[in-house]
Amino acid sequence: xxxxxxxxxxNGLRIITSPLKNTQAMTxxxxxxxxxxxxxxxxxxxxxxxxxxxxxxxxxxKNTKEVSEAIDGVGGIFNAFTGKEYAGYYVKVAAExxxxxxxxxxxxxxxxTFHPFEIDKERGVILEEYNxxxxxPMYQIGWDFEKIIFGDQPIGRDQIGxxxxxxxxxxxxxLNYKESLYTTxxxxxxIAGNVEHEEAVEKIKKFFQFPxxxxxxxxxxxxxxxxxxxTILRNKKTEQGHIVVGVPGYHTTHPDYFAAKxxxxxxxxxxxxxxxxxxxxxxxLCYYIHTTTDDYNDCGVLSTRAGxxxxxxxxxxxxxxxx
Length: 323
Prior knowledge:
This protein is an alpha+beta fold and 323 residues long. Helix content is 38%, strand content 21%. The protein contains 11 helices and 9 strands.
């Protein structure tokens, strides 16, 4: 098993390092328990919008240009993502440039200003991202599936949120939400690559001087799977039909969690899987098809997705269910 090191600071911040031989690069990931499960109907989408706003300027790097130039200037790459249970921010650089990575990430995470002018500009960006997902059935079908299997609870809502939230969220909303979740006891910093554990711990102590706050918001506990409806249809003029067929799965600590992961590979995880060989190769019903699990702390799903000829949707569903 690959070796990793773990340190928990007095303020609750967890640091994990994973040294890798034969590489001169390193990736720093800041992971915060601040995904869309922490939202309610009224602020659905704030986690994802907040993720965008961290790149819009802080104390040292005052705008998007300065943030991006700092990382691009040393040949690094950086990005972020928002999931159901957490949000992540990462930078990959040559190890010799690690101070720049720590500096940029810490400035973003601790000192972002969320200026109203930048918020208003970013509304347009996120509305276009919203429209992109609406126009891309391969994305939208997954969210529709989670909506039907989880029902009306936070785990069943997508991360992009609603147009109402995107158009109305304020600087105060962002500051309050950040204060409630972006705390040391709710954050993990992980570094992999050309890294020395003790050196990383000292650098994180130096750069990541978070305010002395504790997490003050919890997500709504998973209730149960939705069983009243089992089908959702969305009509859009396309050349291909996109389908998801799935069932409730296991949460991440279930004793059969890894067995379900193996099952998903057997069913549709590669080119020798049952779905690929039968539904695609033998019957020619689709171009893409794959089976995956989506795993959360207290629930999960096992599902198969495919893009099929509009005239053969029923046949494809029958073939998937048979496997």
